[in-house]
Amino acid sequence: MLDVRRLSLLREVALTGSITAAARSLGLSTPTVSQQLSRLEQEIGVALLEPAGRGVQLTPIAVELVQHTERVLEELEAAEATLLTGRDGLGGAIRVAGFSTFASGLLPRVITRLREQHPALVVEFVQLDPEAAMDELAARRADLMLADEYPGFPLRPGRGLVRTLIAREAIRLYPPAGTGHEVSVEDLAAMPWVTEPRTSEAFQWARTVCRGLGFEATVRFESPELHVHRRLVETGLAAAFLPVHLAEGAGVPLLAARGLPEDLHRTVYAVTRRGAELRPGVRACLSAIREAAADPLAGLG
Fold it and tell me: What is the pLDDT, as a whole number, of residue 213?
């Protein structure tokens, strides 16, 4: 019988790209991981890793073995969900990874709801961009992740993941406060802009929209925090694309530019691993997120 723990180590090497990175992510020493993988090779009688530059790569049989491991781990998670469903009450910990505006907008409401409904259930949260959150989910260091997706720039696909639609949030273009509603393409081109980091899908989407309108945005400021974007807009220092609720639902409402596309939006999803979505704690957390997002007074920003 193959050792699932050793198979999981091989899977971690496949996810992280090296034995050293796998050891780091699991909190183990590199020699320990190497030793366990050597024993796995001895058990099955074939090589699983081969030299590749300064590191290693999986052999074809190892790739197939990792695919089987994924299915085994899915079944084990589903079995665990069955056992947990039979218990009275919900307990334990659920680890959630998500982006910044979820953290500032919905997270407090979600935690409050879960404390009221399931006081023994502990929610842990780490703020990460979608790419990093996807890695945490795949590595089983997170049980659930929240990510925003922009039209034309879909979330990275992942094997054995289940997506749940949470919200579709309208976005508008907001010129610097004091500029007024009426702005031309020339005005927009001359304005300083604040965007999310250039490596993000949100930036790629914003640049595509600007080019479609006929101008290239002059990006002076970059921040992953949309509250920073709003502050720069309301102080008259930059233009930005902002979710409507964040721009108009708190404090002094910002004025969106007129005559520009009004069908801009982002979509927010919750993502879990297949099998894990059956766990009572994960189901309760998903339900609380959907309820919080449906609240007309709530916002993702």
Answer: 92
Residue ranges, the chain, pLDDT below 50: none
Whole-angstrom distance, CA of residue 4 vs CA of residue 10:
10
Indicate the pairing of strand 92-98 with strand 144-149.
Answer: parallel
* pLDDT value at residue 301: 52
Asked if 275 and 78 touch (Cβ cutoff 8 Å), the reply is yes
Query: For residues 40 and 42, what is the distance between their CA atoms, to the nearest angstrom?
Result: 5
Q: Phi, psi at residue 59, to the nearest 5°?
A: -75, 165
Strand partners, 219: 193
210 residue type, one letter: C
